[in-house]
Design brief:
heterodimer, A: alpha/beta, Rossmann fold, Dihydrodipicolinate Reductase, domain 2, 6-stranded mixed β-sheet, 41% helix, B: alpha+beta, Alpha-Beta Plaits, 4-stranded antiparallel β-sheet, 29% helix, binds NADP nicotinamide-adenine-dinucleotide phosphate
């Protein structure tokens, strides 16, 4: 049995999901030879640490570390001090400077710990630098959850499509925009009405700019460009148009002519813009779904779709990444 | 010379084969036959478009032969515009001189706006226009799109292109 001591950094929606998935899948994971032990949970208030693995009942119902932390170190210091094999980095995204995640990931990699993250910021800002660091320290940096949430895109390309040249990836990478456009089309809602509905349902943030202006999608486009296409792209290199100017009339007009309007991200072209998607196209998925079409030289075009966000869904992608780090190592050795 | 013909066939077996017969007889080289079974006319006939190459002096013979067999020839002529694309514009489409927008495409000589629908929800509200552009080839479609992007930037219109266009 391989014991994996995990430090969880960030105790929000995704952090809670990770703890839940690790707890629920404990037996299944043991069945494949992995004993995942969360030895620390850190947020902005402090750190809860237990070298034998944190007892889930202590965390039950807790929203943050206030009152349950037993160490007053956080951030890089906590990552450095705590003896663990792997850091799960799930703090808030900032795609301008990548912090605090960037510092956390650098610290973890340089102290020889694997990193699995759902945080786009550090990867948008410094993907190539971080992968080099991982390589230099003999560890892995995995990030499936940053693009398309639970939808297996990076691993599909790296594992199943290995040997293929990837010519282009196009898709819907933001469930919030997809939800808003879907509701506008189906219910003839105005943009602002559909946005309000999405906010009430917790699908959109109070400040929706990050999603509806295409910033989030552009961040994912940068991650795909650098990771799959080996580019050295920056956020500023992406030409971005969001969905604020789409009207229900336009959606209706498009529909009558056989099209949906979707916010499409495209790599390696580095573009994010609303596009007409034929109704019968595999990219024409609705609701909060994400979708990606991968155009390859050998396998033709392969399309995957799935939920782009959600606590358990995102956590499932994180746990898959953890498992793949240890299972691919077994093959190596 | 490359020509095209729009026909309407009765929806009965054998009609399509019968309609192709005179093309053979007058040594036409058929390039494509598009049979719009899903777009029946109100008369119950099925539209068919045939693109072919032929010595133009034979076109009248073919038309006569078809009509003698009860096939309606809706249009016959030179087919210059073989590629098409749909584009949607959102913004003050009308107040930014829609005529001029269309003319920028039509005046190229290699493309034209063939179909146009408008939605105008209210005076101050942005309107939407659907355009179908036909052009003499894929490259010309790409050029027309680039003209529209330009016009869009100039007139503050959001230009929404179809995903297929990217293949060009
Ligand atoms: N939610 C999703 O469905 C989803 C899907 C894909 C990717 N992601 C990405 O995953 C990451 C986490 O998302 P989330 O929804 O879980 O966010 P969240 O609910 O806002 O949680 C973020 C957590 O990080 C903590 N934190 C903030 N600064 C910190 C620091 N310096 N050190 C340690 N902890 C810190 C926060 O603590 P406080 O609350 O005390 O500030 C909070 O516990 C984000 O980067 C997000 O973009 C989310």
């Amino acid at each position: 049995m391989r014991e994996v001591r995990i430090s969880l950094v960030g105790f929000g929606i995704v952090g809670h999901g990770v703890l839940e998935v690790v707890r629920r899948k404990r037996e299944l994971l043991r069945g494949i030879g992995l004993d995942l032990k969360v030895v620390s949970v850190t947020d902005i208030k402090g750190t809860l640490f237990d070298a034998d693995g944190i007892d889930p009942s202590i965390l039950h119902g807790a929203r943050n570390m206030e009152g349950i932390a037993n160490l007053d170190i956080i951030g890089k210091e906590a990552i450095q001090e705590i003896d663990s094999d792997l850091v799960v980095e799930v703090t808030p995204t900032n795609i301008v400077h990548g912090q605090p995640g960037l510092g956390h990931i650098e610290e973890a990699l340089s102290s020889g710990k694997h990193v699995v993250t759902s945080n786009k910021g550090p990867l948008v800002v410094a993907y190539n630098h971080l992968q080099e660091m991982a390589q230099d320290n003999g560890v892995m940096l995995k990030y499936e959850a940053t693009v398309g949430g639970t939808m297996p895109l990076i691993s599909l390309i790296e594992k199943n499509l290995v040997g293929n040249e990837i010519l282009r990836i196009r898709g819907i990478f933001n469930g919030t925009c997809n939800y808003i456009l879907t509701r506008m089309m189906e219910e003839r809602y105005t943009y602002s009405y559909a946005l309000t509905e999405a906010q009430e349902l917790g699908i959109a943030e109070a400040d929706p700019a990050y999603d509806v202006d295409g910033i989030d999608t552009a961040g994912k486009v940068v991650i795909l460009a650098n990771s799959i296409f080996g580019m050295d792209a920056k956020y500023e290199d992406v030409s971005v148009t969001g969905i604020r100017d789409i009207t229900p009339e336009a959606l209706n007009l498009a529909w009558e002519r056989g099209y949906h309007i979707k916010l499409i991200g495209e790599v390696p072209a580095l573009k994010v813009m609303p596009m007409l998607v034929p109704r019968r196209s595999p990219l024409a998925v609705g609701g909060t779904l994400n979708v990606a079409s991968i155009e390859t030289d050998l396998s033709g075009t392969i399309t995957v779709t799935g939920l782009g966000a959600g606590s358990i869904e995102t956590a499932s992608a994180i746990v898959s990444d953890i498992v793949s780090i240890y299972t691919s190592r077994q093959i190596d050795g | 010379m490359r020509l095209s013909m729009d026909l309407e066939l009765q929806d009965i077996p054998g009609q399509l084969m019968q309609s192709l017969e005179p093309f053979k007889r007058y040594k036409g080289n058929i390039i494509s036959v598009v049979h719009h079974r899903d777009r029946k006319t109100p008369r119950g006939t099925v539209p068919v478009q045939i693109v072919f190459e032929i010595d133009p002096s034979n076109i009248e013979n073919i038309k006569n032969h078809l009509e003698e067999n009860g096939i309606v020839v809706v249009r016959a002529g030179e087919d210059r515009f073989i590629e098409e694309i749909s584009v949607l514009l959102i913004g003050h489409v009308l107040h930014t001189d829609l005529g001029d927008t269309i003319d920028r495409i039509d005046s190229t000589g290699f493309a034209e706006v063939e179909d146009l629908s408008l939605r105008m929800p209210g005076i101050e509200e942005p309107s939407s226009a659907y355009l179908r552009i036909r052009a003499t080839g894929k490259e010309e479609i790409a050029k027309s799109l680039s003209i529209l992007r330009h016009v869009g930037a100039e007139k503050d219109l959001l230009v929404i292109e179809p995903i297929e266009a990217e293949k060009i």
